[in-house]
Design a protein that fits this description.
The model has no long low-confidence stretch (mean pLDDT about 95). With about 350 residues, the chain is α/β, with parallel strands linked by helices. It contains 14 helices and twelve strands. It has a seven-stranded mixed sheet with strand order 2-8-7-6-5-3-4, sandwiched between helices. A three-stranded antiparallel sheet has the order 9-12-11. Strands 1-10 form a two-stranded parallel sheet. The two termini are about 25 Å apart. Its cofactor is pyridoxal 5'-phosphate. Pfam families: Beta_elim_lyase (PF01212). This is GntG family PLP-dependent aldolase.
Length: about 350
């Protein structure tokens, strides 16, 4: 039965808790397209304050929040720099080009190990009939980089690079809450480094829907227009915003529990030579390049035993811990994986 499965595919599979459902059921609502939903307004003000910015805008998805933000900082026809595994160019279906007319160029995929000097060397100025660079985007934590956390010192250097070249710096902060808990960096300290951020409520924090674009009041006024153009204007969406507010109040610090569960899984699979990187947060990447099983075969065998994992490539799989997976389920998942990997 589906309810018996241990689902480690993603932290997006969580279901609202009883307390979150109660908050949703009792939320005060209004028409948000008219700017009249008080719960949405409260959520936007709360998130903006957390990151030390003037304003925020609620969006229905992380992809939309990212793409709104990119349109705020890169004019059509100009260039965004990011890494080759970045969510904004890997999992958002070409939206930067399709919706924003944005040209993108990437540095080699290195996850959280970004070299600011490499990024600086890629910047193209105006003139010479080349596409001018307008912004740099980074991902915190890095999804395909195994949940890696970009060090604060690296982000400060990237801010210097952006300032030296007159560029904007965007953070795809879908899991920035995990970075905050893992490294203890205040959210406002992260916020101070970026012109725009997107932050997600429906991954580790367990809300059913929602992300926010964070930035200056001027940028967010423009973002509201872009959101409507992209079909993201919503009506009595305070029901969903209430879930986000509940998540912020109750589910941030508990992310440390997910990190500990991921560490236990990493320790279990480490003897089999498939651990792709040091596990810092809630993502455990598996590199099966030298293993007899490929990723689809491992996933299929695991499913037969009641365990769901993600396949990211022919030889790459992923485990993600989250609030709906118990300690006992982690133990059972570890036992299943070690049985399959030693076979």
């Amino acid at each position: 039965m589906a309810d018996e499965l241990i689902d480690l595919r993603s932290d997006t599979v969580t279901r609202p808790t009883a307390g979150m459902r109660e908050a949703m059921a009792t939320a005060e609502v209004g028409d948000d397209v008219y700017g009249e939903d008080p719960t949405v307004a409260a959520l936007e003000a709360e998130v903006a304050a957390l990151f030390g910015h003037e304003a925020a805008l609620f969006a229905p998805s992380g992809s939309m929040a990212n793409q709104i933000a990119l349109q705020l900082v890169v004019p059509p026809g100009d260039e965004l720099l990011c890494d080759a595994d970045a969510h904004v160019v890997t999992y958002e279906i070409g939206a930067a080009a399709a919706y924003g007319g944005i040209s993108s160029r990437t540095w080699p995929a290195v996850g959280a190990e970004v070299d600011p000097e490499v990024v600086a060397g890629m910047v193209r100025p105006d003139g010479y009939f080349a596409v001018p660079t307008r912004a740099i985007a980074v991902e915190q934590t890095h999804n395909r980089g195994g949940g890696g956390v970009i060090p604060l010192a690296t982000l400060r250097e990237l801010r210097r690079v952006a300032d030296d070249h007159g560029l904007a710096l965007h953070c795809d902060g879908a899991r920035i809450w995990h970075a905050h808990v893992a490294d203890g960096v205040p959210l406002a300290e992260y916020g101070a480094l970026f012109d725009t951020l997107s932050v997600c409520l429906s991954k580790g924090l367990g809300a059913p829907v929602g992300s926010l674009v964070v930035g200056s009041a001027e940028k967010i006024a423009r973002a509201r227009f872009v959101r409507k153009r992209m079909g993201g204007g919503m009506r009595q969406v305070g029901i969903l915003a209430a879930a986000g507010r509940y998540a912020l109040a109750h589910h941030v610090e508990r992310l440390a529990e997910d990190h500990a569960k991921a560490a236990r899984l990493a320790e279990a699979v480490a003897p089999y030579g498939v651990l792709a990187t040091v596990v810092r947060t809630n993502i455990v990447p598996l590199d099966l390049a030298k293993h007899p099983l490929d990723a689809p075969a491992l996933a299929a065998a695991a499913r037969e035993r009641g365990l769901l994992i993600s396949v990211l490539g022919p030889r790459t799989a992923r485990l993600v811990t989250h609030m709906d997976v118990s300690d006992d389920q982690i133990d059972r998942a570890a036992e299943t994986l070690t049985t399959l990997l030693r076979a």
